[in-house]
């Protein structure tokens, strides 16, 4: 399959979107706290509130993409992202920081995965699976690139100047990419790529209007699966090292294991891209959910047997599940419901997911402090189980639906 330069460009812009508006915070927040003599908990609380602002904006931006197209929405997103980052560089008090941080996360959704997936759905219809996978494969290196880059920049300049550099990245690199994105949709057959099998491929099943299985129930199952999976990934991303320390693992061991998550994530996405005809989107969704759940079961097993082999097995298995889950978020709604109304639909799903994602770090740490690390891990396993059962129920429901 020929790789579109616009898809590669979108992967680059998504890397900048996540690197400047998400991963930068964990590096720069301590610097901000020191400058203003704020507690780090206060600064991170504002970031979590910002994620809730993103949950509010996701459905709105999704509808705007459906109505006006991805090019103008994402281009304006780059402009406003640059503006908010530049404003952070000159803010002088807590109220200014709160307002600007909320605005930054409110517009972030316009330059991150959900907007990018909607752009690809508009362009390629149901054939966007490979493009979605390629974009996540490229953007999967956002933390790998930006964490060391930001730490290096801090040795050369102040955090205020670093924020100006991040603003410039959105204007100089991301904005031109979004402005040159192809407009409209290619004239391609609206059917998925065939699976590697001897039998002819089946068209994706679209529910008939009025069917008892149509309407709210499939969307509810998707929302539950995505939201509970988002809860898991947000909690693990924020609290993993804290939990591993409480489990008795040495810092060096914990960091070494956690560092395996990223490569495993990218490897799973690469395999999905190269072998995308092997499994259908529903099968990939099931594999992703089971991998997340299995990884967390292995992590919970370290409560009883704190062995490093279990810890590294968790990191590899969980990383693969996390890598595939990002792809599933884009391709499963497209597979089942098609490109019409894709922005609105994924915006709604993202809004629900982001609410739980914002609450996850606080919830897990609260459970750890009140009931112990075992309770926190049990909550994560339960959330992963809910995600798995929901996607299984969705696949079964849709398999029984009559295609039109």
From TrEMBL:
Top-level lineage group: Bacteria
Membrane-spanning segments: 7-29, 41-61, 73-91, 97-120, 132-150, 162-181, 220-243, 249-271, 283-304, 310-328, 349-367, 373-395
InterPro entries per UniProt: MFS, MFS_dom, MFS_trans_sf, Proton-linked_MCT
Keywords annotated in UniProt: Membrane, Transmembrane, Transmembrane helix
Keyword Membrane: yes
Pfam families: MFS_1
Domain Major facilitator superfamily (MFS) profile: residue ranges: 1-402
Cross-referenced PROSITE patterns: MFS (PS50850)
Protein name, per record: MFS transporter
Phylogenetic lineage: Bacteria, Pseudomonadati, Pseudomonadota, Alphaproteobacteria, Hyphomicrobiales
